[in-house]
Design a protein that fits this description.
Belongs to the MurCDEF family. The chain is an alpha/beta fold. It has 18 helices and 20 strands. The protein has three domains: 90 residues, NAD(P)-binding Rossmann-like Domain (Rossmann fold, 3-Layer(aba) Sandwich); 209 residues, Mur-like, catalytic domain (UDP-N-acetylmuramoyl-L-alanine:D-glutamate ligase); 133 residues, Mur ligase, C-terminal domain (Protein-Tyrosine Phosphatase, Chain A, Alpha-Beta Complex), CATH 3.90.190.20. Helices cover 36% and strands 21% of the residues.
């Protein structure tokens, strides 16, 4: 154990009679949950099968919370009253199977933290756009003077903030993995942006199972709550045929007029919520450009109108917002070639959105850990916009198979530096080099952030 075993044992003996909470995973959410659990008087133990970073190790040590690193010890875990699981640990992991067999409750950090706050929650999920929409929503609310925190799949842990802050509202970015371990939790405002194939390796490669996970965003809602969804998303509409929301529902669309919600007419967004005065805004005034970002802006705008924020404040915030790093981030223009970092595009649909927003010929850098991707949806865009594909990953066979008839050049590379240099040589003045991988990053990189940072560093070395 990468801590003092005696500390763990003595702490256990001192805590006899207290409910024992075991936390699996010592990242941001796990350490935040440990902090809150300790504050609430639980006997806390943290176990991580991987290496705990120095930052989080020091945080646990400063709180005198016992932990272990690079292993799971059954005797220290299977005596738990409840287990809080990191979203990254799959349900079929050996330790999870043992916990379930023992009849021990397994929940998410979000579920745990919500027990200890009266703050209202705006919960945003979707296969694509949830980070951008969460940040934009938070930006609008904060600018309007709302006492609001930002947590979930982004920023500081929800549990840590519940332990140390006193926000009245939280904007929570919620992944399907989090939703799978949320049971009593209720969103006051639930936002579902879209459902497209992603993480299917965690859902038996069945889209309907993944969709069912996303629909958990509306579980436990009642008539006083709000549900915001995309009326143009086929999988969402399919799921809504079987699940009838109890909450007040506000759809958004760029294809048809909506009575209560948001829609696009010509180049103007209209947002109308019940008797509130209508908000209109031209899409050229939006800080976020591209079709996918019209959807994201509509969703955030509906939230703002539900909260009865002033139209001028909403317009100002939607026009001066700066997007998240690694999402269609302009890095540099070199020799007339634009370099765009979209490393956060870890699924095919995200890459589709990125290509759809391009207005020049593209040299596309893509590849990584394939999560059961169906590349067919990219074929038309690749044919019309992509002049070459630079693969960045250990196994690129499926990308070659998918696009060998659509582009003349497909090159394999195994580092961000090599991919960037080759893409630069393949591009011409007026072209765009776009890193939009459509895959997870863990074959060559620590994270999508690491991949994006290495790409940006390589661009600056050109």
């Amino acid at each position: 154990m990468n801590t003092n075993q005696n500390t763990a044992n003595s702490t256990q003996s001192e805590m006899v009679g207290k409910s024992r909470v075991v936390i699996l995973g010592a990242g941001e959410s796990g350490v935040g949950a440990a902090k809150l659990a300790q504050l609430k008087g639980f006997d806390v133990f943290v176990s991580d099968f991987g290496v705990i970073t120095d930052k989080y190790k020091k945080a646990l040590e400063s709180l005198s919370i016992p932990f272990e690193s690079e292993k799971h010890t059954d005797d220290l875990i299977l005596n738990a009253t409840e287990v809080i699981k990191s979203p990254g640990i799959p349900a079929n992991a050996p330790i999870i199977k043992k916990i379930v067999e023992k009849g021990i409750s397994v929940i998410s950090e979000i579920e745990f933290a919500k027990r200890y706050t009266n703050a209202k929650t705006i919960c945003i999920t979707g296969s694509n756009g949830k980070t951008t929409t969460s940040l934009l929503t938070y930006h609008i609310l904060k600018n309007a003077g709302v006492n609001v925190g930002l947590a979930g799949n982004i920023g500081k842990s929800f549990a840590a903030q519940v332990a140390t802050e006193s926000f009245e509202w939280y904007v929570l970015e919620i992944s399907s993995f989090m939703l799978d371990e949320m049971f009593q939790f209720k969103a006051d405002i639930a936002v579902l942006l879209n459902i497209t194939p992603d993480h299917l390796d965690r859902y038996e490669y069945k889209l309907e199972k993944y969709a069912a996970s996303k629909m958990r965003i509306i579980q436990n809602q009642n008539a006083d709550d709000v549900f915001i969804y995309c009326a143009d998303d086929d999988e969402t509409l399919k799921a809504l045929k079987n699940i009838k929301p109890l909450a007040k529902s506000f759809p958004f669309s760029i294809e048809k007029k909506i009575d209560q919600g948001a829609y696009l007419e010509h180049d103007t967004i209209h947002i109308l919520i019940e008797s509130n005065n209508e908000l209109t805004m031209t899409i050229t005034d939006l800080a976020l450009q591209g079709k996918h970002n019209i959807y994201n802006s509509m969703a955030s705008g509906i939230v703002a109108k539900v909260l009865e924020l002033r139209n001028p404040t909403i317009r100002e915030s939607m026009s001066d917002f700066k997007n998240v790093e690694h999402r269609l981030e302009h890095v540099a223009k070199i020799s007339g070639i634009d370099f765009i970092n979209d490393s956060k595009a870890t699924n095919v649909n995200s890459t589709w959105y990125a290509l759809e927003s391009m207005t020049t010929d593209v040299v596309l850098i893509m590849g990584g850990v394939d999560k059961g991707n169906d590349y067919s949806m990219l074929k038309d865009l690749v044919k019309s916009k992509v002049k070459a594909i630079v693969c960045l990953g250990k196994d690129n066979k499926r990308i070659h198979d998918a696009f060998e008839d659509d582009v003349e050049i497909i090159v394999n590379t195994f580092s961000a530096e090599e991919a960037t240099q080759i893409a630069f040589h393949l591009a011409k003045r007026g072209n765009t080099v776009l890193l939009s991988p459509a895959c997870a990053s863990f074959d060559l990189f620590n994270s999508y952030e690491d991949r994006g940072d290495q790409f940006k560093a390589a661009v600056r070395e050109l």
